[in-house]
TrEMBL record:
Name of the encoding gene: oppD
SUPFAM superfamilies: P-loop containing nucleoside triphosphate hydrolases (SSF52540)
PANTHER family with a match to the protein in the record: ATPASE AAA-TYPE CORE DOMAIN-CONTAINING PROTEIN, OLIGOPEPTIDE TRANSPORT ATP-BINDING PROTEIN APPD
Main location: membrane
Stated name of the protein: ATP-binding protein
Family classification: Belongs to the ABC transporter superfamily.
Organism: Oceanobacillus indicireducens
Example GO molecular function: ATP binding
Membrane topology term: Peripheral membrane protein
Source domain of life: Bacteria
Any GO BP: peptide transport
Domain ABC transporter: 6-258
Annotated keywords: ATP-binding, Cell inner membrane, Cell membrane, Membrane, Nucleotide-binding, Translocase, Transport
Length: 308
């Protein structure tokens, strides 16, 4: 069996605290991602899922630290690499997109310039003509119509969905092996959200790119993931294939998350409120919850199309 593309082993992340030396926010987390696989990490705000992804990318804030554990990417322990070696990997072999593209895009630069910067960092000798051609091709890959015109616009001239597509274009500019997507659809309406999910899944299949998809929304998980990790209070409490998770969840917390999924009678604002307040999840009464067979969010099993 081939080695995983990404392997996280016994990861512990700590931050300084006023009343004690350190506070642990991620506890002994282990998981792997194979080439071409989409692994979703799901949990409410503060569960440690985003902190885990930032540690993988080496983007923890200066006061945060990986106290112990190992992160192997393509067989190399990222935590043992010098900074100059990490910079060669980030943005080329592994890359990340965030929830709000306006916080990542430079409002003062045209879209084509920002794509060009992503290419030049790892290909300093690339010609101006090659950059122009590659930039337009990337915008077309992320299904942007009239790519030539969009390339000349500034971020504020684009819709939220278009800006997220541009961020994905920049992320895949150097044909990475691993994409980490941290809540990339949360700020989008349902229609655009589904388009972005479909785009990421198509790129995953076309390029055999591994994906770590961070979200609090189990309906999103159902649409995109192959395997799911459920995080709570900095720990992984359950791991399963997407179909196993919805058909037969094992952990009480996973069951509560499934019960919090919206139905025709439950609006998404209510769900967001539940996810932001873990105490409300704790108070959900025991009882039936939706399974994979009776929720309208879940894609069909292997071999069926993804619009289910």
């Amino acid at each position: 069996m081939s080695e995983p593309l990404l392997s996280v082993n016994n990861l512990v992340i700590q931050f300084p605290a006023r009343d004690k030396d350190k506070i642990t926010v991620v506890h002994d987390v282990s998981f792997h991602v194979n080439q071409g696989e989409v692994v979703a990490i799901v949990g409410e705000s503060g569960s440690g899922k985003s902190m885990t992804s930032l540690a993988i990318m080496g983007l923890l804030k200066s006061e945060g630290e990986v106290a112990s554990g190992a992160i192997h990417f393509q067989g190399r322990n990222l935590l043992a690499l010098p900074k100059n070696e990490r910079r060669k990997i980030n943005g080329k072999d592994m890359t990340m997109i965030f929830q709000e593209p306006m916080s990542s895009l430079n409002p003062m630069l045209r879209i084509k310039t920002q794509i060009a910067e992503a290419l030049k960092i790892h290909h300093p000798d690339i010609s101006k003509k090659a950059i122009q051609e590659k930039s337009i091709d990337l915008l077309r890959q992320v299904e942007i119509n009239n790519a030539e015109a969009v390339a000349n616009r500034f971020p504020h001239q684009l819709s939220g969905g278009m800006r997220q597509r541009v961020m994905i274009a920049i992320a895949i500019a150097n044909e990475p092996q691993l994409l980490i997507a941290d809540e990339p659809t949360t700020a989008l309406d349902v229609t655009i959200q589904k388009q972005i999910l479909s785009l990421i899944k198509n790129l995953n299949r076309k390029n055999e790119m591994g994906v770590v998809f961070i979200t609090h929304d189990l309906s999103v998980v159902a649409d995109i993931a192959d395997r799911v990790l459920v995080m709570r209070q900095g720990k992984i409490v359950e791991e399963a294939t997407v179909f196993e998770l919805f058909d037969n969840p094992q952990h009480p917390y996973t069951i509560r998350l499934l019960k919090a999924m919206p139905t025709l009678e439950t609006d998404t604002d209510t769900i967001d409120s539940l996810m932001d307040d873990p105490a409300q999840l704790e108070r959900l009464e025991d009882g039936p919850f939706q399974t994979i067979s009776d929720t309208h969010f879940v894609r069909k099993k292997a071999g069926a199309d993804d619009e289910g």
